[in-house]
Design a protein that fits this description.
Blueprint: H1 7-19, H2 25-35, H3 39-105, H4 114-122, E1 124-126, E2 133-135
Antiparallel strand pairs: 1-2
Helix pairs in contact: 1-2, 3-4
Function: Transcription factor.
Domain Homeobox: 1-56
Family: Belongs to the HD-ZIP homeobox family. Class I subfamily.
Length: 141
């Protein structure tokens, strides 16, 4: 079983890593002398430390991307809801205009009455739970 490094050895290796993540020959010799570890142990510790640092950075990046994805999904849901409402209103307006034109063709409505019908359309709301149109109190708007 591998022997754990002493705290002072880890502290010296950490200080060397903060200086530079890569070892020079001089740094290896210095760390070997002050820690009592052999060159392979020092090189291996630096490799593991670099890999650990990369993994930590990757986890942070993954978390950032996941948060961004969730925000995009929330925004997409909001836009879909807005799109659904706009389609409902567009349907109401188009139906009102079609009714106006049909009635005008059969002389049931004059072109002066279009304003009144379009005013009515402004006070109509489509209940998302029901296909029925209900007239709302104009003072509520």
């Amino acid at each position: 079983m591998a022997k754990r490094f002493e705290k002072y050895q880890i502290d010296l290796l950490e200080a060397g890593f903060e200086e530079s993540e890569h070892l020079t020959k001089e740094k290896k010799i210095y760390l070997r002398r002050v820690t009592g570890l052999d060159m392979e142990q020092i090189a291996s510790w630096f490799r593991r430390k670099r890999a650990w640092k990369r993994a930590k950075e990757s986890r942070g990046e993954l978390e950032r991307i996941q948060n961004e994805l969730q925000q995009n999904k929330n925004r997409e849901a909001e836009l879909e809801e807005e799109n659904r409402h706009l389609k409902h209103w567009l349907t109401i307006i188009i139906c009102g205009l079609i009714i106006c034109f049909i009635m005008a063709i059969f002389k049931k409505v004059t072109f002066d009455d279009y304003g009144t019908i379009l005013e009515y359309i402004n006070f109509v709301d489509l209940d998302p739970c029901s296909p029925e149109l209900t007239r709302l109190d104009p003072e509520a708007h």
